[in-house]
Structures are given as C-alpha cells and as structure tokens.
Amino acid sequence: MSETLRVPSAMLTRLLKVAPGLQHRKLAKGASIYRQGEVSTQCYVVVSGRVGITMLGAGGQELLIDIVGAGALCGEGAAFDGLPRFSSANALEASKLLQIPAREFCQLMSSDAELAALIAQTIALKQRTLAGRLAQVAQSSPEVRITELLSQISEPEASDIVLTHQQIANLIGASRITVTRAMQRLRREGAILCHRGRYQLVRAAAPHLHASRMA
Q: How far apart (Å, rounded) are the C-alpha atoms in residues 78 and 80?
C-alpha cells in the first residue's frame, strides 16, 4: 500500500451504482493518463491500481507530487475550468479508471444529491491533504515529515510501504540525500523498519528529532 491519498470507497461505490455504463479504461504499468499542458474535458476516478501525479520542475525534471489509489478523483480541475492541465498522471501499476467527461459528471451530480455530497467530500479531502503537506514542508523536520507521510500510507492489513527515497523526497519537499540521512536516523531510533526497500512505520519520530535541521 503506497498511496499518499486514501479516499473512502463510498464515492466510487455510489458512482458505479448511479452510472453503471461509465467508460472504463484499463492501463498497463507506465501508461499515460493525461499530460501536463494539454487541454481536456475528461476527469478520472481510479477503480483499482495506483496512479502517480507528477509536475515538470523549472529544470524540466519530472517531480512526483502525489500517489493515489482506488476511489481517488484525478484531473477534475482542468476538466472543469477548461485551462491547460498543471500536472500529469501515469499508471504506476496495472490500473483501471473511469473516464468521465466534465459535462456528464456535472449532470450526474445534479441528478443525485448523495453522489454530489460524496464528490465534494473527496475534493475537500484532497485540499486538506495538500494543506497538511504544505504545513509540514514549512514547519517540520524531515523525520517528522517522513513519519507523517508513512502514517498516511500505512494500513493495519497492509503495513509494508514501497517507495524509493527519491519518491519520498518529492512527496515531502526535500532532497534525496536529506531523506536518506533522515531514514538512517529513524532506523537507528527504531521508528521505522526497512527490508529490501519496504518500510514499516513503528512509531512517530522521537521528540528530539523534531529539531533536526530542515531540508
């Protein structure tokens, strides 16, 4: 389990119930869903798999900014406002998505109040998650940011987390070297366990690590 945004399944369940004929897209690992800069009226809901959301940095490098899983809503901003997409989306593994034109999505929300409320909750969760991540970048040490990220991702029934140090660095707003050093400190403290690139969060970072140098 490696999504940074876990969305309750209620919205997806309701959407499939009120609109069973929606178009499904099956994507192989690495397949592009949409690209930064394009104009499109399509939005997407992840049914299964994992999707990476990326942006191009000032130097042209592709930066991972989020990983989303089943139930997540993607690409709705550009689909609704008609402006070029500010991010790209790619399948990190074999995935299935619902592809919904913005006009049809609006019609579904207008015809079903329960679905509209669930979509609003999903968008609010995205905003809250982003706000929390921005606050962490501005105020917290790398260790705290890492343990907060891992706590968002981990689940009791699937505690192993598979992310590279570079992916973690992109997601918490730090350099890869900073993440590697912070992970070493967290392992020494016993806050995380690591085996062949799989991580398990044992507990939050110790208080004295809160004051460690910022990235």
A: 5
